Please model this.
Amino acid sequence: MAITALHTAATGMQALSTKIDVIANNIANAETVGFKSSRVNFQDLLYQIRAQPGVQTSTETSAPLGMQIGLGVLASNTQINFQQGSAIQGNNLDAMIQGDGLFQVELPDGRTAYTRAGNFVRNADGELVLGNSIGYRLRDTPTIPENIPTSEVSIGSNGEISGLDENGEIQIFGQLQLARFPNPGGLVQYGSNVYLESGASGTPTEGNPGEEGLGTIMPGHLEQSTTEAVTELVELIKTQRVFQMNSQSIQTADQALQVVANLRR
Model:
């Protein structure tokens, strides 16, 4: 019946609406440092089995095919694209991870959050904090002495945080560590450029950059968003067209039902 087509096309429009939301978020964050774009995965819904395949049709034959009518589609999940973003030149406190791993920052409630954004700044207490609207403190940050100018502080490729004192001598203040997850796509997107651990992500492995399978640090650079504007716009156009086709399916089903309703006239 056409009523099935109405409901099936409606599930398609709902799922595609979700994809449009995700694409819009990807495009909106095209300039967000360390942002990882997402995609929507779909799955088909239950089927009405009107005729079972393989049913015995005689003592010697069976039906090679059946009649199975699908009931639509579901947006099953969103998947984070953790591929490497391209590098852009930054300042001396910026750091970019080349390879696997995430920076570790502290939330106000004491939990550890994870980020690919390496736009760090020095706060009033001499600590390194993430340059977002909240200023999450880098978990491994040292307290940099007041007599060391910010312009002389840097993060090395091995994660060492160091600077030059007034005598031109190098002082090592601390060691930055990275963390990596068995399934980074299972991290919770918390907002403000950070992720949270979940049961799906697994337990993080921590270590110095370049060790334990972790990436190294590219000092003075930032990782750009993995949003590809052209790709996202093409996907947006495709999604819009499929959305329109589902809308057309609803109109066709409505017209068929209208014909049925007018049979008595």
Remarks:
- The CA atoms of residues 4 and 71 lie 7 Å apart.
- The longest helix spans residues 229-261.
- The mean pLDDT is 93.
- The longest strand covers residues 73-80.
